[in-house]
Amino acid sequence: MKRILALFMAVVLAVGLLPSAAFAAEGDSPMVITTVDKTTVKPGETVTVTYTLSHDLDAMTELSIVLRFDVSLFQFVGTNIDNSVWFDNPSVNNTSVSGNNGYVRLRQFKNSNTDTIAAGTLCTMTFKALEEISTAQSALFYNNNKGLLKSSIKVNGITQGVNGVGFASGVDDPISVNIIPAGSSITVPKTETGYTVSMGADQQLVSGQKVRIPVTVASSEKYITGFNAYDMTFTYDPTALTLNTKTGDAANVTVEDNNGTVRVRRYGATQALGEALALEFTANKATSSTVTLTAAKFDLDANSINFDAPAATITDADTTVKALWNVSLPDGFASAAADGSTLVENGADFTFKAVNPNYEYTLRITTNGQTQEVTVKGGSYTIENVTDNVQVTVVSKVGRTYTLKFVGSGVDAGLVTPTTATVQYPNDYSFTVKFPGTGYKTTVKFAPSDNKFDVERLENGDYAYKLLGNYLVGDENGEITVTVEKVENTAKKDIIVAGSGSEAFSADNALTFYAGENYTFKLDKNEQYYDYELVVWYTDSSNHTVRPTPKDNGDGTYTIVNMPNADMHITINKMAKALDPDAVDVVKYLELDNKTMYMVTVWGELSHTNLGSTNTTYIAYTYDDNLMYDTSYYTAPNGTKGASSWLVIVDKGEEFTKEEALKHLKLVESTQEQNKNISLVYFGIDSNVNGSKGGQVDINDVQLVYDMYNGLYENFEQVSVKKFLLADQTLDRQLNSADAVKLADKLGY
């Protein structure tokens, strides 16, 4: 019987430095998987090695596969690239390097490849066992053997490392093939598996529901990736749980349940490590019980020839299943528990509350086959001694009625009529406060202060107030007190302008105002390239933030009515919607021996605002589809804060202009993670220029800056754009000796 020996050997794909590389499978790096069609041959017979790409891979530009073999046992027959997902015209080398060591190398370049390489077969290599072999031999094939040529992948022209995840070098990674002449035999040694088994996490569910408990297998042996057979025994309380797991359809999984003792056995094709089995139970009642793994054996098919299956190590034997009663609540009600849970232990009390206290509810509560109706006036309600699932439904709800009381010197002065009223939730209530006269102002406060209102300044100077019915909040007596005061207006306050679009605030606008007056200001927007968001706010006497809504007058001006006795903040945020050519700047960054490096900058902060939505949209600029770095520590000559930067290298004497740069620039949407990765801002410019993993800033960072401005690196293959940008420690958008001096000063040199 032929057995397939699958040994996983991967080329590490270091995506951290390659923002354009992407993998089809989340959480998994693409791997080069090596398999053989047989593990036992006779002299003169062939064995075929197949290389397969496990996942789709973008932007691969080079692939080199190297396989070492023993030339005293096998001879290389040839390769096959029919239906290869990569190779179409590879170079093939078959070479003996020393003694019996030989290797085959299959290699092909594809410069500037942008196509996605689909998962699938890469190639096959066929070898023939030598005819003259007369005694049983065990031959080894190695990938990436230490001291010899190594397999490699290039992505976007950059070589990815080897000897990483899923890959082994040296004598630890062989594929073993036995050569057995007629009449001889060879004993296959036992494969150490190192299996460990653990039960799934504890679970909580509603009585009567199903629960799925995974059983996971792992291995302490580096090259064990799966298993073929297992034999496991579990115990559980059959009065609390009912086992639903049945014998497998393929008849290779057998489930035996003997009144709470379950034995599950499996055999067949190789199954990957991870979840080996999932037990499904139904909770019979609200109680806690434990499912326990008492014994487990796992093994590979290779060991089945000569050995018994060994016991696996059980690292976590128990899964506790806690079944609870459930209280089903209608819309508008929530559990009073801190975690909001509607699950209740048997015999416990359950308290719930109305989300909106402005209604009086009639509720129907059904449990244990009995129903009762109760009245809830806001607040909360408790169901005692829960011994079954509970269903709560709304029979009726009626908005509460509140009494409005008007008090204060403004009322005494006749500025408000009427002085009493009633309002029923969720209806609005409107009233007018007359203009108190020159030199005076009115203040209006609501108690409780959680009440919300709109206010409009009328053309005659009066104020129209609307108490918003959806937000009515009364005191313990069901009253809302409106206090209107007439006071002398002596407060002169400031306008404070901020935000990424603050330059739109017209220079003709007044920067002071008097409380109670209307304030009109103008915005000079560049709406061809930017969207704008206007946020107006102030801090009231209770240290609450209040956000009045400016009236858009339709002519570029806005009016804020009834200005407060507090400084008013006007924040103007802008988000680019198209590339603004006036925001683009190009300067000479570094002169090299044969090249000139230019810095391309787009002035302005990156905006993270989605206007008119609660969702956040992230934007960024790209140069040739590369995300430009956020260099917010730069300030434009005109005072514009923030910048996005990229570096371009041209031949010596070649001019690189703003007009040329504009051909390569785009404005794109990006992700939060992408914007985080392109930021070079950390308490100013990051001084860890070489990006060392430890984050330490040391003399090597100074040395790197020195080497950069002395022209040691004339491209971005060894030293990235990011590192060149970080070298500008003086923040003058030029790279020279002053940057090394500045960085050395930070070290205390």
Folded structure, characterized:
The chain is mostly beta strands and 749 residues long. The chain has 6 domains: 6-179, Immunoglobulin-like; 195-324, Immunoglobulin-like (Sandwich), CATH 2.60.40; 329-399, Immunoglobulin-like (Sandwich), CATH 2.60.40; 401-488, Sandwich (Immunoglobulin-like), CATH 2.60.40; 492-576, Immunoglobulin-like; 581-747, no CATH class. It is 6% helix and 45% strand. It contains 6 helices and 58 strands. The strands form 13 sheets. Strands 17, 20, 22, 23, 26, 28, 30, 32, 33 and 35 form a 10-stranded mixed β-sheet that branches. Strands 3, 6, 8, 9, 12, 13, 14 and 15 form an 8-stranded mixed β-sheet that branches. α4 (699-709) runs antiparallel to α6. The longest helix is centred in the last third of the chain and has 11 residues, at 699-709. The two termini are 72 Å apart. Mean pLDDT is 85; it is low at 1-27 and 162-172.
